[in-house]
Amino acid sequence: MSKTVLISGGSSGIGYTVSEYFAKAGYRLLWISLLEDEMKIAKSKLQEEIADSEINTLEQDLCLPNAAHKVYDWVKENNWKIDVLINNAGIGVYGHIHEIDMDQELAMINLNLINLYKMTRLFLKDMIHKNKGTIINISSNSSFQPTPKLSVYGATKAFVSHFSRSINEELKNSNSKVKVICVCPSAIRDTNFKKAGKMENLKTFSGLATTTSKEVAKDIWEGFLKGKDFIISGWKMRILYRISAIIPYKIQQFLVRQEIKEV
Ligand SMILES: NC(=O)c1ccc[n+]([C@@H]2O[C@H](COP(=O)([O-])OP(=O)(O)OC[C@H]3O[C@@H](n4cnc5c(N)ncnc54)[C@H](OP(=O)(O)O)[C@@H]3O)[C@@H](O)[C@H]2O)c1
Q1: Nearest CA to ligand 1 atom 20
Q2: Which of 48, 61, 169, 234 could in theory staple to 215 by disulfide, Cβ–Cβ 3.0 to 4.6 A?
């Protein structure tokens, strides 16, 4: 294996579909997820699809405070050199702020924000040292504007977008060859995310700008090859993003209210 990609949440959803592209291109895959059994099943499936693909797995709850260091130590112990890090694992917690269990939201903050921050810091240092490597941080279209009933989720993703894009500008300004790509998918119809977050009934998952895990993975792969900094996935969201820049705030919030209605 000439190159290595480390993907959090690689065994399902967009983590899995993007893994297919990297495996086809000959990358060694390193997956970190919550459930070892699920990783075993996904590993067999991918190896049936793409013979010779090398997949190494680490069962790790990325909500735990020392998780990122454990992942970093695992990589070092095995002497793997990370060419691409994809911080993809994430969850959503839906509801009115005063009704949501605070521990659930804190777990989400740890996974979506703290862990992503730590993983980025740890692996970026090595990449800068070698002047080589890419970090792909999965944010969301929820980072574009306030998201009622997804207030903390949206805030974690606003952090991911701002943090990733700021670091990338820093790297560009210092002529580094290292890149941090920020990816903002719209609502994805076919992953476990909506079920895990009890959001199956939200209109946004059957609304105008939905996408699929296949389309997101294709956008990520093509954006990565083209050296893009900021990827909005899929095509309907890209159009809406441009339009939303000229829409007054009140109308934006009216549209958001339609998206979070239960159907
Ligand atoms: N789906 C959407 O509509 C949507 C839209 C915009 C952005 N996104 C973002 O896209 C990313 C991937 O979501 P997805 O739609 O592919 O969802 P998914 O199918 O639910 O995948 C989430 C992945 O994260 C892993 N994960 C969850 N909790 C974890 C934990 N505590 N420790 C380690 N791994 C954990 C899961 O592992 P297990 O399977 O082992 O639990 C799974 O592999 C997330 O960051 C999400 O916020 C999703």
Answers
A1: 193
A2: 234
